[in-house]
Amino acid sequence: MSPLKSAKFVKFVKAHALGNDFLLVDRKELPIPDEWPALARALCHRRRGIGADGIVIFEARQGPSFSMTLLNQDGSHAEISGNGLRCLGAYLRLSGWTSETEFSVETGSGTRRLQLIEEKGSRFVFRAAMGMPHLASREIPFQLEPPQESVVQVPLDVEGRTFLITAVSMGNPHCVVFVDRLDLNVLRELGPRMENHTRFPRKTNVEFVEVRSRSEISIGIWERGAGETGASGTGAAAAAVASILNGKTDETVTVVCPGGDLKVDWEDRKEVFVTGEAVVVAEGVVR
Fold it and tell me: Are strands 151-158 and 65-72 parallel, antiparallel or unpaired?
């Protein structure tokens, strides 16, 4: 049965970016926004639904340009997802919604641009312009008195332990923790506590980062509203920006996620670019 009271069925497309998976739904399928959180929870459930980290509700506009609204697995709204953005781009190309190799998508954090790099069947590689990172504590937001222009190596108390964190917003908040050795079990333990820490009034995404070289880092990801994920576009961007701010890497970084690699460029310390793949998996109908 459809999770929407106002519709008999819902058409969807499933896509993933390095294992970070999303359900894409045309806005015209969903007349009542109040029902979107329930839809996200129902469709994203791994056992009782189709299963996904989030749902992207998209709308076509002139230009060509498009808009997307993102809801997490738990039904909460999110400002943006870099991987969800590329997943949407893959479907828009594959389905013929656009034949352009460059196009824009309006997100909850502003307009983001996609440039097609490679296309093979249902697999696409895009370079996404992710905007400028917000570094000031008030813009992230991160509670700090007095407010600071950047949040770099600031102590954060979690369950009786103190961590030095770097906080960044890529249109959504991120808490970056550098570790000597990446241990996903520790991330699973501390990620939920950091996500809900009172110093992040809008909650936060969490990345644990192991620096491998001046040009490569590996990360573990705990996403706000979704939990542990195989990859994150904004998380990779935030981790790279934090690494650069702390002087640990150069300004072009390969970010090794559990699900695969993303390339992040912050060469002029203005706009951040993330390059990576997205794959359209299936489409169908939920009744």
Answer: unpaired
- For the chain, the C-alpha Rg in angstroms (whole number) is 18
Put simply, whether the predicted model's pTM sits higher than 0.85 gets the answer yes
Q: Cα separation of 156 and 105, whole Å?
A: 35
Cβ atoms < 10 Å from Cβ of 31: 10
Q: Contact at 8 Å (CB) between 45 and 53?
A: no
Give the three-class secondary structure for 199: coil
Shared domain check, 24 and 98 = yes
Number of domains in the chain: 2
Burial bucket for residue 272 (CB in 10 Å: 0-12, 13-18, 19+): buried
Q: What residue ranges in 102-202 does DSSP mark as E strands?
A: 102-107, 110-120, 123-129, 151-158, 161-169, 173-178
pLDDT 10s digits, 158-209: 989 999 999 999 999 999 999 999 999 999 999 999 999 999 999 999 999 9
Compute the half-sphere exposure of residue 93: CA atoms within 13 Å on the CB side of its CA.
28
Give the residue numbers spanning the domain of 213: 151-270
